[in-house]
């Protein structure tokens, strides 16, 4: 009753249902990004327009150039369907299943994925190399019952300008039933996670003949359901070799746009982004907390970047950023990369149907259980693939994010002074300062600087959040770097 009385007191524009235009793809973000400040909804207040937006220009999304448009247009739902159907045909892909049976089990799936990746690499003129790195995982007293070989399939497309900078996209090809240690049951794993593997494979096919500036790696990992073993092995291998992985995406359960109650949301994919990095030293964590940097971790900056380059009419997708590492008490293959000190995020469908993941295939009380291909939406997966393609291509063709970005805290001033490490990157044209109010989720304003390594902005660091990003000669911009006191 009190709630109804409250609504009756609101202006008509606030109490009425949201119009269809307000809930269409891209509407929410474009309001946040392009219409700041806004007083048109219940959450607005006079403070929302403070400080005055007089420094810099309103930030607009980075739309795809012609080459990226061509990449997006090539993503084929029919090919995605064929990949998932083939993976389902192996019966089970449980990590502990047969590695030698030519038609059933994880070994047959591994070999088929590697064969397909090699066929894609044939179009790369030697620039894409496919490997199957592996190791033997010993029993762990939990989900590894006996020594088992964990194998990842890795297709590495070498960058043409900055080959030492890597971006990784991954899905896991292993599956499970209700009992995580039952390696004999049929476990089709169409959504979890043949859908994610299909994205890696389809993007590898399309990008193999192209020349990104930085290196892009397309991966299918094993051992996820038993404990993230394949991703952990790959992340640690990169770390041990001092590989400069600047961004990683895992696509896990991105196959269905339909919730368990029948609700359909075919134009949304969630991106999960960790807050405070677990790899921060105690001292750095204290500083981050003191300066209010908990929402500006590298993962959050990567997620903002994805929204800026991939939430548009070319992908037709909304990309809500979930401020969490993952779903509640659950894990994914981005976690080992984060733990290795790399920046990583997870893509997942908006509403999971738990009858169709981690379930024995059965009918119970007139309900069909099991991760069957009949519940997968191939058009939806193609849209998610477009989000990944836009993000990866934009990252790989932009300059690297600025390093060692600091804000001067030695002087009391209402100006903000920044410095960063000068770069001689071939791609680099210059830098930009981004800023937003402290309660805004996305960057709102941009100040172009040119090719310099310091800047003074007539806006107090006490009142807003700042970031510095690199801009390429081709117009591609990097994720922003959050400045620490220096």
Give your account of this protein's structure.
- Strand 14 (about 405) and strand 15 (about 415-420) form a beta hairpin.
- The strands form five sheets. The protein has an eight-stranded mixed sheet, with helices on both faces.
- Helix content is about 30%, strand content about 20%.
- The protein is of the alpha/beta class and about 475 residues long.
- The protein has helices at about 1-10, 10-15, 20-25, 25-35, 65-75, 75-90, 105-120, 190-205, 225, 230-240, 280-290, 300-310, 335-340, 380-395, and strands spanning about 55-60, 130, 135, 150, 155, 160-170, 215-220, 245-250, 270, 320, 345-350, 360-365, 365-370, 405, 415-420, 430-435, 445-450, 455, 465-470, 485.
- It is globular, with a radius of gyration of 23 Å.
- The longest helix is centred in the last third of the chain and has 20 residues, at about 380-395.
Describe, in short, the structure shown.
By secondary structure, this protein is α/β, with parallel strands linked by helices. It has 14 helices and 20 strands.
Radius of gyration: 23 Å
Tally the helices: what do you get? Answer: 14
Strand content: 15-25%
Q: Strand count, sense and closure of the main sheet? A: 8 strands, mixed
Low-confidence stretches: 1-44
- Give the CA-based shape: globular
- Output the structural class: alpha/beta
Counting DSSP E segments of at least 2 residues, the number of strands comes to: 20
Average pLDDT, rounded to a whole number, is 91
Side-by-side strand order of the widest sheet: 2-5-7-6-8-11-9-10
Helix content: 25-40%
Report, as a whole number of angstroms, the end-to-end distance: 54 Å
């Amino acid at each position: 009753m009190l709630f109804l009385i409250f609504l009756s007191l609101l202006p008509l524009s606030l109490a009425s249902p949201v119009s269809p235009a307000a809930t269409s793809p891209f509407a929410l973000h474009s309001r946040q990004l392009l219409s700041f400040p806004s007083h048109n909804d219940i959450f607005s207040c006079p403070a929302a327009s403070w400080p005055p937006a007089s420094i810099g220009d309103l930030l607009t999304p980075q739309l795809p150039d012609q080459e990226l448009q061509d990449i997006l247009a090539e993503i084929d739902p029919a090919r995605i369907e064929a990949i998932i159907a083939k993976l389902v045909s192996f019966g089970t892909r449980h990590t502990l299943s047969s590695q030698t049976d030519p038609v059933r089990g994880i070994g047959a799936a591994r070999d088929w994925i590697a064969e397909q990746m090699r066929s894609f690499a044939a179009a790369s003129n030697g620039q894409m190399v496919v490997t199957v790195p592996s190791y033997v995982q010993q029993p762990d007293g939990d989900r590894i019952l006996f020594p088992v070989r964990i194998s990842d399939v890795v297709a590495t497309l070498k960058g043409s300008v900055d080959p030492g900078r890597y971006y990784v996209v991954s899905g896991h090809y292993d599956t499970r039933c209700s009992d995580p240690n039952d390696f004999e049951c049929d476990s089709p794993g169409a959504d979890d996670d043949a859908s994610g593997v299909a994205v890696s494979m389809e993007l590898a096919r399309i990008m193999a003949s192209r020349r990104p500036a930085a290196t892009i790696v397309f991966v299918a990992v094993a051992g996820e359901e038993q404990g993230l073993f394949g991703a952990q092995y790959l992340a640690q291998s990169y770390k041990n070799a001092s590989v400069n992985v600047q961004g990683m995406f895992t696509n896990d359960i991105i196959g269905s746009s339909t919730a368990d109650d029948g609700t359909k949301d075919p134009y949304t994919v969630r991106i999960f982004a960790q807050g405070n990095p677990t790899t921060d030293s105690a001292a750095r964590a204290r500083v981050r907390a003191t300066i209010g940097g908990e929402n500006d971790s590298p993962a959050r900056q990567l997620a903002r970047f994805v929204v800026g380059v991939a939430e548009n009419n070319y992908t037709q997708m909304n990309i809500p950023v979930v401020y969490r590492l993952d779903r509640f008490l659950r894990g994914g293959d981005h976690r080992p990369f984060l733990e290795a000190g790399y920046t990583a995020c997870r893509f997942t469908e908006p509403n999971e149907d738990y009858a169709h993941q981690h379930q024995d295939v059965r009918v119970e009380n007139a309900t069909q259980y099991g991760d069957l291909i009949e519940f997968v939406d191939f058009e939806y997966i193609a849209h998610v693939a477009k989000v990944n393609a836009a993000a990866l291509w934009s990252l790989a063709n932009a300059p690297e994010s600025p390093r060692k970005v600091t804000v001067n805290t030695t002087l009391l001033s209402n100006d903000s002074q920044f410095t960063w490490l000068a770069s001689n990157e071939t791609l680099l044209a210059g830098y930009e300062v981004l800023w937003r109010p402290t309660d805004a989720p996305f960057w709102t304003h941009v100040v172009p600087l040119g090719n310099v390594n310091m800047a003074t902005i007539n806006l107090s660091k006490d009142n807003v959040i700042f970031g510095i990003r690199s801009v390429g000669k081709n117009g591609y911009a990097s994720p922003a770097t959050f400045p620490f006191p220096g």
